[in-house]
Amino acid sequence: MRQDERQGEPAMNPIRRKWTTLCVTRRYCSNWGRLWLSRVWGGFYRGEVRLRSGLTIQPASELARSWGEIFEPAIADVYGIRGMPPPDVIWDIGANIGSFSCVAGKAFPSARILAFEPDESALKAMKKNLDANGVRNVTIVPHPVTKDGRNVEFVGTGASGSANIYGTGAGLTLKSRVPTVPDISQVQRLFIKLDCEGAEGEIAEWVCDHLGELPRKLRLVAECHPWCPVPVETTKDRLMAAGLTAQIAVRFGEVYLEAERNWH
Questions:
Q1: Residue 198 near residue 187 (C-beta atoms within 8 A)
Q2: Which H/E stretch holds residue 218?
Q3: 5: which DSSP letter?
Q4: Looking at per-residue confidence, does 211 or 45 come out higher?
Q5: CB atoms within 10 A of CB 194
Q6: How many Å apart are CA 120 and CA 234, to the nearest integer?
Q7: Which of the pair, 113 or 149, is modelled with greater confidence?
Q8: For 36-80, what is the HEC assignment?
Q9: For residues 222 and 150, which has the higher predicted lDDT (pLDDT)?
Q10: pLDDT at 145
Q11: Which residues, listed in sequence order, are joined to residue 261 by a DSSP beta bridge?
Q12: Beta bridge partner(s), residue 259
């Protein structure tokens, strides 16, 4: 199945995609003009992204390189948190500079948010963004996440700040071990956001294997990457076999997997 045949957003040609991106940016950002010019001329504007909601997000590098880390989770809301039922706990796995955690923290001030991010430069940027927006309900966990808590090698993959545990790029590496996930047996509603550069397949496997320990109301949304060892169709089938509803969608040219149980 081609990406443009999946459920969700119809396939876009490059011009239409740029126009749609501009329209969404204009709708949700007060400084959309400067942001858009920075996409055309990288050095035009290096400042913060100002959302009409009052949030501000400072990129870790010039916007021409790090745009996706802000646009997708904070502006385009590809994880679908606008208007969704308030979760008790949110796991932001692959938090990067904290764009999603900032938006989720402001939208759901009573929720407990765990932001998993192992990259040191991204961690510094995330702390600044959380502090700048007065978001206090986020706990940062400076570790990558795997299904079995094994030691991994974390490899930076480029100037945008992305990195993964599968060695698909070059850069500085570190060794880390995943901490034990806190007890959530009394939680009613859990939202899991995954943007973990290929680890989404094995984390979804972990979810399937531990459904009995997870809240009755559960929703998972993952950005899916072509280098993930577990194909997205396989992950979808496994989630459905475990009793969740699941679908694959394409948004702004990226593939996402959505799964839920008793969410509404």
A1: no
A2: strand 217-224
A3: G
A4: 211
A5: 25
A6: 32
A7: 113
A8: HHHHHCCCCCCCCEEECCCCEECCCCCHHHHHHHHHHHHHCCCCC
A9: 222
A10: 86
A11: 218
A12: 220, 246
Among 112, 64, 61, CA closest to 90: 112
Total-model pTM: 0.89
Could you state, in order of their start, the residue ranges of all structural domains in the chain?
A: 3-261
Alpha-carbon separation of residue 89 from 146, 190, 241 (angstroms): 19, 5, 25
> What does CATH list as the number for 3-261?
3.40.50.150
How many angstroms separate the Cα of 98 from the Cα of each of 18, 104, 110, 121, 205?
Answer: 24, 10, 18, 12, 25
Cα–Cα distance measured from residue 85 to residue 148, given in angstroms and rounded to the nearest whole number: 30
The residues pairing with 190 across neighbouring beta strands, listed in sequence order, are: 89, 218
- Which two three-digit tokens encode residue 105? 């923290």
Give the pLDDT score at 149: 78
Q: Looking at the chain, list the stretches that DSSP marks H as alpha helix, in order from N- to C-terminal side.
A: 14-28, 32-40, 63-70, 99-107, 120-132, 200-209, 232-241
CA distance 100 to 115: 9
Local structure of residue 147 (DSSP, 8 states): S
Residue 233: predicted pLDDT: 97
Pairing of strands 89-93, 138-141: unpaired
Q: How far apart are CA 219 and CA 244, in angstroms?
A: 9
| pLDDT 10s digits, 73-127 | 999 999 999 999 999 999 999 999 999 999 999 999 999 999 999 888 899 999 9
